[in-house]
Amino acid sequence: MCTSAAEAVSPYFSGERYELGRPESAPTTMWFKSILLLLAAASLGLSAPNARYSSTTRAGWQPTSPRTDRRSLLSRDTCTLPEEIPTAAPKANPFVALSQQEIDDLANWLLAPAQGLNLTSTSSPNISLSDNYIWHIDVLKPNKSDVLSYLDGSGAVPRYARVTLIQGGLRVPIVAEYSVGPLPISNSTQIGSLDNIYNGPNGARLLWSAGPVDPVRSAAIDNLMNMTLSPIADMTNDLLDMAFYGSSDNRSTMTYFMQSPASTDGERTLFWSPFRRNVMEPWDSPSDLYIQFDITGTDASLWTSLKAVYNLQVYDSVQDFYNAWKDGNVTKSPPPATDISFLYKNQTGPVRDLEDRFAPTILALDGNRFKVDRQEQYVEYLGWTFYMRFDYDVGVQFYDIKFKGERVLYELSLQDAIAQYAGNNPFQAGTGYMDRFYGIGASSIKMIPGYDCPYHSVYLDGNYSTTTQQAYTQDSAICIFETDIGTPITRHNNPVWAQATKGSQLVVRMVATVGNYDYLWDYGFFVDGTITVDAHASGYIQGNYFRPDDEGQWGPRVAETLAGTLHTHVMNFKADFDLIDEKNTFVKTDIVVENITQPWFTELGAFEMMRYNISDVETEDDGLINLPPNGQTMFTVVNKDQLNEWGVPRGYRVLPGLSNVILASQNSPFFLKNAQFAKQPIAVSRQHDNEPSSTATLNQNVPQAPLTEFYKFFDGESLVQQDLVTWVNLGMHHYTRAEDIPNTLMSEAHSSIMFAPQNWGNTELTKDLSNAVMMYAEGPENQIVIDTNGVEPPACLPLGPEDSLVGVFSVEG
């Protein structure tokens, strides 16, 4: 609890002047109250209503000792719990998830014989690989043109569903996406292929073998694993100290994983499986055994095992491997460690000095300064307004982002989070994850108060539809809070005045645990008009079996039989700028260095100097952009038809932040055409309703024949005063280390980008903030004025004498 020694310390006296060196100028009680609140103001960055007083020190006043001060101040008033402030969105959110009724109606409509789809219900106990059935029903994100017509006028937003069908019963089995609508179901409802939003060689479909591992296929794969591994249990027990008899068999002490991608174009599905000890976190209990499998086609009786690799020896078949072991021709490597205590995240060792105290935290002591419409997922904060939607594939997304009533971005949304691995074995070397395929939004977690999010955060649910045809709500999938940015947003001192303005931002946070990794995304809305995206990673590394002869080329040893694995994370974001309107231009401002002569420096002759070279990115032919060395290019989205007071186009800067990496291997067969968005830091294209995303959920297993091929967006169209989309990447090269055990540290696994006003206003955009202080001298005696704009700190905040504003500023002479 936050308390104060003063029973009545508010309000600040206003409009009066006290010279603290003269006792008769102010009663002792009023002076003491003033000091307490001045200390509070300094500590919190909150300030008093036009409080004015001199900066000299009052005679005879002595502060208490730190320990006594701490105890005595924590005694009385209690901070009130911040209340959630409701608001009403100007219009209903056009991005609402499907309701259970809508999902049920859609499923019944699709299953009806009249549609001719020959679908089997997923609840059928006899469903098979060669059946047609529904994999996923989700809302189809509406076209931008329809949404803007609705938000800015009186247009309607048609409501459609995106339906993914696994069609194993066709002559050529496929997995395909369809649109169904308009909704609600009526006589006018139709089903059609979603070819219009997918530009790959097969449109909105892929061959069945490259599809998702749903429960039907998973059961068939588990059966194949059992048939392969049970007969060689004596060998795996000897070499690996573990065996597999099926996932549901209690005798199984081993578990398996599927390599991703498992195909290149869907014609054939081959994957390598590593085998790991079936413990709490099997990611970090790998063995030295890998087996390749062929699971092509809908007839599981034709599925088979192929090669085996153990101790880096390649065997043409599992039987050949088994025979070699029987003959005593297999050199044994150490089995995975049985002691997994290194994976536990529990407090161990001596407690650090003062660690028994509660760690600093973020508190809104004076109440929240943002408003939320929960029903419409709409937020207002100090000039910012925006809508949110939640998506099974990627989680939280933002729309119609405005600052002080003017639109900045139509859309800001995660597109995919991918990971490219390396390693001296067939599984790690062949791994390229596209986490959208596994459902980033579906992997969102309920936040842990005080740890994932500050206490008193506002929590919003994530609503989406699952692959089991259920409308699902993830409680507290999003948290919203305001935080001090840790520095003033502006400040200055000179001999005659001093100024500082409080720096704050609203943070919208989401966390998703996708397999072994936990990703945290922060979307920050600063009081100066800046928007930031920060990505952090933690969780368990996908470790490699430690081999001394690898000499750390793919990662260092981090445990008894475990090595880290070099890999790269890339997260792609869509930033659809609409600066006032949809007519924007992407501008490059290069710092060029050249030899010049100047008439006022004749004695220097030619000398080196820098200047700007400003140019438009005129067409999509130049829209794939790399970062220059030394940060010597500024990238800006501007609206040439909207000028500020000084005749300069209003704009926003795209400012790369920490660790904006791209794929290290540009030509990997596992990220050939399906992840082209991750091969340059920034890309700029024309916005089209039929190019809604840089990737597709089903891109994972078709690197040579993806549904969405990003580079096809770039076909020479003009980018000058057009509706533009900027695609930006965050990421990290993960140089694995011992400190990744048990969990990767978010302090290092961090990447960011910033979108900052660039001539958006006529001056900097914080002059209207009240959380600021001005100090200056006034009158013949240079009496110090401290003007704090009428903002009071709460009475519950304990402060020390070092927090006083008195004496901070003085005028010599």
From TrEMBL:
MF GO annotations: copper ion binding; primary methylamine oxidase activity; quinone binding
GO biological process, one term: amine metabolic process
Residue positions of the active site: D435, Y517
Gene3D superfamilies cross-referenced by the UniProt entry: 3.10.450.40, Copper amine oxidase, catalytic domain (2.70.98.20)
One Pfam family from the record: DUF1965
CC per GO annotation: plasma membrane
Sites bearing 2',4',5'-topaquinone, chain numbering: Y517
SUPFAM superfamilies assigned: Amine oxidase catalytic domain, Amine oxidase N-terminal region
EC number(s) on file: 1.4.3.-
Manner of cofactor binding, per the entry note: Contains 1 topaquinone per subunit.
Start and end residues of each DUF1965 domain: 286-335
Keywords of this entry: Copper, Metal-binding, Oxidoreductase, TPQ
PANTHER family: AMINE OXIDASE, COPPER AMINE OXIDASE
The name this protein goes by in its record: Amine oxidase
Organism from which the protein derives: Cyphellophora attinorum
Lineage, broadest ranks: Eukaryota, Fungi, Dikarya, Ascomycota, Pezizomycotina
